[in-house]
Amino acid sequence: MKQLMGVINLDHELDHLNELTYFRCGAAVPFASRYRLIDFVLSNMMHAELESVGVFVRRKYRSLMDHLGDGKSWDMNRKHGGLFILPPDWNDPTDTSLGDLQHYHNNLDFFKRASAKYIVHSGSQHINTADFQKVFDYHIQKGADVTLVYKKIDQLQPEHDPCLRLEVGEDGFVTNIHQEKTHPNVYLDLFIMEKELFLQQVEYCIAHGESYFFRDAIQKRRGNFKIAAYEYTGYHAVINSVASYYKNSLELLKREEYLSLFRDNPIQTKIKYEAPTRYLESANVSNSLVANGCVIAGTVENSVIFRGVQIHKGARVVNSVVMQKCVIEEDAVIENVILDKDVQLSRDRILVGDSKRPFVIAKSSKM
How far apart are the first and last CA of the chain? Predict the structure, then answer.
């Protein structure tokens, strides 16, 4: 869609995933046996055929850059537009901007060179399958300055507590933005706005010593804009803690949840050519999500297994998430555990966490 360009802002996404973000930013955390968290919003932008997408990241972005590459996996390796990874580059000695406004001020060329008239702005913590074309059509139909996307949550969970909430009038416009934990309308950290208005507000906020675009330009000054609210009704998960990551990973073992996320549009990720998983004669696998390239000789129950994992004979993996290239040796047992990449678990080792607070083993650990 030539009228829209994408902004994926990771600046405010803190390291709430503890060991899982020791060596990477949150957007690069693996999810659903073969993906990274950023793949979902990037795939939504790909399906909407956005002209160009900028990823703004401040720290721990080496893993993310390696994953995204030139954007080919999302059809964004183009001569004009495409994917731009924009790490911090503060080279203007007169710059007084703060917070995420620094990214926008120091990358004005990215916005000005794009022919798109509108911006779709998102983070990576809210996994969804929003149709940006439908959101954009709604934005135009309402004649709004800004359109915010939200979902009405029937059963609020602890991961929703930090999320902003929207109060919406009968006319479809936002009447308030707040953080009342009992309010069901959870804001998905996703909005559409005209590019020129966006840049005007960036400059206004910088001139007034502000730090964060959404909080200072939209939430604090909502009375200055016509803010429409688009209700999204599809799959939604918030990944903002280890507990929410673990819970939502295992929720995908439910067929209806899995289909809700993957049925309508394919999710793209970095391509890795690996052989199919080998299930040896002693393997016993049930109700699990297993990626390719694995060798399984043990027992796997209710678990998510990423690429290249080796589970030896006699080993048991129950209610766990095992990331890429982990090795679980003979007769080892893990239950309610998250193993980050390249963990080696020695023979006869037993690790048992709690279903509400899983035991997390950091990347490349040997135990």
Answer: 50
